[in-house]
């Protein structure tokens, strides 16, 4: 990517600072076709970007924990209010409240860490889906223009059902915060369908579903335009809530990020 090129994710992260010295940012969400409800991964990515805009450049995203409080809508302003909870030598902590039409739609705590030398270890894992065994998926909800996906040959659904391989269709700037925001966006594509009990078949008319909360731990460097394997599994379902945990691996098998999400499923 040339320096003069701006990626689609960077365009989605462009803020207006409400006041020159403050930590309040505003974005007007562009409409995506006929979709009305804001995608949770987008708001989480923008919240992380707002938090990162108040942190020293040397500190990189370490983790985030977000609650989707209520649904938002496209073609309307969202305000991101950042609270500087802590600034330490190695870590910085931020709280972000995303507000639309005077109502809170997301709350996030994000942590940033200055890279340090240390042991680099992860457990070995056999891939749940090898790249050569995966097939191209051409229509995934409303995100096929942003991401390429390769899924199991028997996945004929309109959803992104893990395990799958994913990458951005276009290059993304080599900026750790932008890359982490891209990972945050794409990490919300798989957990909701994965949160169903294993014996419940997925279909478009199954019932009402929504993300309740979402957590990410950023482990290693991430290149959004390179193929990554996303594995997500259901670990619990009760009270109409399903809990899914996931792992994102690069092509060499390195664990790039860990994810957890609880989803509401009213079947």
UniProtKB/TrEMBL annotation:
<dbReference type="GO" id="GO:0009062">
    <property type="term" value="P:fatty acid catabolic process"/>
</dbReference>
<dbReference type="InterPro" id="IPR025652">
    <property type="entry name" value="TesB_C"/>
</dbReference>
<dbReference type="InterPro" id="IPR003703">
    <property type="entry name" value="Acyl_CoA_thio"/>
</dbReference>
<comment type="similarity">
    <text>Belongs to the C/M/P thioester hydrolase family.</text>
</comment>
<dbReference type="Pfam" id="PF02551">
    <property type="entry name" value="Acyl_CoA_thio"/>
</dbReference>
<feature type="domain" description="Acyl-CoA thioesterase 2 C-terminal">
    <location>
        <begin position="164"/>
        <end position="262"/>
    </location>
</feature>
<keyword id="KW-0378">Hydrolase</keyword>
<dbReference type="GO" id="GO:0047617">
    <property type="term" value="F:fatty acyl-CoA hydrolase activity"/>
</dbReference>
<protein>
    <submittedName>
        <fullName>Acyl-CoA thioesterase</fullName>
    </submittedName>
</protein>
<dbReference type="InterPro" id="IPR049449">
    <property type="entry name" value="TesB_ACOT8-like_N"/>
</dbReference>
<dbReference type="GO" id="GO:0006637">
    <property type="term" value="P:acyl-CoA metabolic process"/>
</dbReference>
<dbReference type="Pfam" id="PF13622">
    <property type="entry name" value="4HBT_3"/>
</dbReference>
<dbReference type="InterPro" id="IPR042171">
    <property type="entry name" value="Acyl-CoA_hotdog"/>
</dbReference>
<feature type="domain" description="Acyl-CoA thioesterase-like N-terminal HotDog">
    <location>
        <begin position="35"/>
        <end position="113"/>
    </location>
</feature>
<dbReference type="InterPro" id="IPR029069">
    <property type="entry name" value="HotDog_dom_sf"/>
</dbReference>
């Amino acid at each position: 990517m040339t320096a003069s090129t701006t990626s689609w994710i960077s365009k989605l992260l462009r803020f207006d600072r409400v006041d020159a010295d403050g930590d309040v940012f505003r974005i007007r969400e562009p409409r995506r076709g006929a979709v009305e409800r804001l995608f949770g991964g987008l708001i989480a990515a923008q919240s992380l970007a707002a938090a990162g805009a108040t942190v020293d450049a040397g500190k990189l995203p370490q983790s985030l924990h977000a609650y989707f409080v209520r649904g938002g809508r496209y073609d309307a302003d969202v305000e991101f209010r950042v609270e500087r909870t802590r600034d330490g030598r190695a870590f910085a902590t931020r709280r972000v409240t995303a507000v639309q039409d005077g109502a809170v739609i997301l709350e996030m705590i994000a942590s940033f860490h200055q890279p340090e030398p240390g042991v680099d270890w992860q457990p070995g894992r056999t891939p749940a889906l090898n790249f050569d065994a995966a097939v191209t998926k051409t229509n995934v909800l409303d995100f096929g223009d942003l991401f390429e996906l390769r899924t199991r040959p028997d996945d004929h659904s309109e959803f992104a059902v893990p395990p799958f391989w994913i990458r951005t269709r276009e290059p993304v700037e080599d900026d750790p915060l932008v890359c982490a925001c891209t990972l945050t966006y794409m990490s919300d594509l798989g957990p909701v369908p994965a949160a169903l009990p294993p014996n419940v078949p997925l279909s478009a008319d199954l019932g009402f579903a929504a993300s309740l909360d979402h957590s990410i731990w950023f482990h290693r460097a991430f290149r959004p335009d390179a193929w990554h394997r996303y594995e997500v599994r259901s670990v619990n379902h009760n009270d109409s809530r399903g809990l899914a945990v996931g792992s994102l691996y690069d092509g060499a098998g390195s664990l790039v990020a860990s994810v957890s999400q609880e989803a509401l499923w009213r079947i």
